[in-house]
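Example S7 (structure tokens).
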């Protein structure tokens, strides 16, 4: 598959080292951010739902950012305050990362973040988060339409966590470098929309579903100039 040689950099997962800044010792665990993404496309809008797992060194760094009083206990107030701040940061960033429907720019908005296990899990446990994004006023016409998305857009939520962790809790460039990112996308169309083609990925016509998976990124590709990264292109017919 041609797009594999262009889009995908396979990141070798290195053994975890001691996180000296906080005194935690990690072993026999991968540094990974895994995102399972569901996109639902409608005539006038779309929604994007993330189920994410942050594993390895990034997970306790995120918890340390939330733990405002550094007592190793995450309270509902601390979690709510951090999520509200994080939503604002992500939404400000998304304004600079539109995608296109035809020639029209469309901006995603982070609607909500769900973290049901944050108060219960240990500091070193994998961090599980869910996020809901939406984009309204999609200019879908009768006939053929095309969505073009810079793949970096799908990593923006996790990239903001990494950026904040570097700024606030000494998450290092080396720790970022050995953190692999895995993305799996499934896209579904509502009645009145039929998928015609996708790059990359494949269409399952029976379910009117697109699957894009097995995409690994490292920090190098995420820093490539936006104009040099091939876009995800999805053509569909509106009727």
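Recovered sequence:
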């Amino acid at each position: 598959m041609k797009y594999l040689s262009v889009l995908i950099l396979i990141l070798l997962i290195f053994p975890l080292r001691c996180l000296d800044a906080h005194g935690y010792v990690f072993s026999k665990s991968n540094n990974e951010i895994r995102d399972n993404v569901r996109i639902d496309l409608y005539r006038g809008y779309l929604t994007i739902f993330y189920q994410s797992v942050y594993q390895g060194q990034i997970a306790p760094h995120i918890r340390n950012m939330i733990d405002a009083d550094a007592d190793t206990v995450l309270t509902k107030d601390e979690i709510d305050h951090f999520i509200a701040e994080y939503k604002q940061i992500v939404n400000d960033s998304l304004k600079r990362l539109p995608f296109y429907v035809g020639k029209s720019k469309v901006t995603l908005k982070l609607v909500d973040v769900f973290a049901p296990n944050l108060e219960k899990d240990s500091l070193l446990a994998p961090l599980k988060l869910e996020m809901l994004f939406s984009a309204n006023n999609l200019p879908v016409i009768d006939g053929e339409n095309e969505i073009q998305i810079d793949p970096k857009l799908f990593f923006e939520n996790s990239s903001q966590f990494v950026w904040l962790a570097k700024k606030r809790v000494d998450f290092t460039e080396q720790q970022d470098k050995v953190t692999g990112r895995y993305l799996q996308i499934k896209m579904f169309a509502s009645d009145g929309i039929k998928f015609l083609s996708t790059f990359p990925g494949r269409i399952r016509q029976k379910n009117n579903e697109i699957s894009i998976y097995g995409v690994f990124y490292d920090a190098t590709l995420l820093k490539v100039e936006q104009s040099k990264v091939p876009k995800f292109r999805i053509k569909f017919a509106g009727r």
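Notes on this example. Helices lie at 2-7, 58-66, 76-94, 156-168, 173-177, 219-222.
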